[in-house]
Amino acid sequence: MSQRGDTNPHVDKRMSPLSDILTNVVEALGSSPGRLEVIADWDKLAPPTWREQASPVRLQSGELVVAVADGASASVLRFRVGELIDALNAQLGGDDGDPPIATVSVIVGRDR
To answer: Is 104 exposed, middle or buried (0-12, 13-18, 19+ CB in 10 A)?
Structure first.
């Protein structure tokens, strides 16, 4: 029976821990600070109007994409983008002083 610290000749030495691999994948996708938070905690982070009418699709390279059910909702929310950006950035902050969300795109019909 092998002890912890023993080397197993059958294990490929080039293998990396899964956590390292996933971190690299997320970084390669252009993850922004708070990316997962925005999607997972949308109901807590977004202002009420946005929570009720939109769903986050993705946050990448400072652009948050949200989906709405119809064109009328999209028109109304496009005028309120500043409200959403301010609310989310106030709660998420940024590691280097740059806000995680610079722009918001509102799309109709996808994932809503």
So the answer is: buried
The structure's pTM equals 0.66
Query: What is the DSSP secondary structure assignment for residue 110, as one 8-state letter?
Result: T
Q: What 3-state class would DSSP assign to 29?
A: coil
> Cα(108)–Cα(76) distance, rounded to whole angstroms?
12
| Rg of the chain on CA atoms, in Å | 20
CA angle 28, 30, 35 (to 5 degrees): 125
Q: Are 29 and 60 in contact (CB under 8 A)?
A: yes
Ordered per-residue pLDDT tens for the chain, 112 residues: 545 555 666 666 677 777 666 666 655 555 444 567 788 899 999 999 999 999 999 988 889 999 999 999 999 999 999 999 999 999 887 656 678 899 999 999 865 4
